[in-house]
Amino acid sequence: MLSKTKKEARRKWAINRAVMESDSLRPTLSRKKSRKKNPWFELLVKGFEIAIRFSPLYQRGIKNAKTTMVNHVELVFDSLPDEFDGYSILHMTDLHLDFMPEIAQKICEQIQSVKADLCVMTGDYANLTSSYQNILDPLEKIVSAVQCRDGVFATLGNHDTHKMVAPFEQMGIRLLINETCDIRRGSSRIFITGLDDPHYYYTREAKKALGASTPGFKIALVHTPALYDAARDHGYDLYLTGHTHGGQICLPKGIPLILHLDRGRKYYRGKWNYRGMTGYTGQGVGAVGIPLRYNTQSEITLFTLHVKTPATG
Fold first, then answer.
1. pTM for the full predicted model
2. If we measure between CA atoms, which residue out of 139, 174, 169, 140 comes closest to residue 154?
3. Is residue 231 predicted with pLDDT exceeding 80?
4. How is residue 263 annotated by DSSP?
């Protein structure tokens, strides 16, 4: 249940987000504005798809995009409270459920046997904000398949709309919109901060939320890696993110052709470290633009957190 203060903050956020969604320009971290969509880029992507549509490469790319795996990642921290040693987090990002509808069933099949303490999702549940209703039923099936004792927390991405908040929360998802909450084990707590998307919808409230968090072991949920330095400056231990799809269309050895990142480009995939803060950029569950993947892997990630000891350190 949101407090009166948080309800008012949510109301103001929704009004501001609605205005930004209706604008063809996007706010950026530099406080300048740029076009949300580049027609030349979209034409180039469609041209590539047409060029290979009747080649064996096309069918291979579709198969790659539909093949999802659960990636198990062990993370060690000297700041993690002892009561949270072994704590597990299931992370999904960039589902784009209306772009490849069949991916929802594959996700359910992958996670139905996975047990975790917490599930987090870091944005881009839809492809088109105008038809977000189409993703509600498949997302609810995915949420029902999740087995975690501390619930499902989520943030919004640049393909999402403020209109998702009410139906998401009705299906049991706890949306964090420039907000922090805590999870308790015995007398210890860890803190989870979720920010609104900083790629298309950046506001100063995002950085304020990072700065307002309580000292302790802190996890940031952000759609893009762009705020990696701000999170580190405010003492965050773990930064979970997505947006890049790991490049989606990559050259051999995973060299990305396109990232859609203004900042933090070297943190486009997998585990990374910035001045002692651990980060992980998921490769995304779904696809976007074209239903193809090359030299990347559709990924659901299961993290297990450990307390650093002489044996693990």
1. 0.94
2. 174
3. yes
4. S
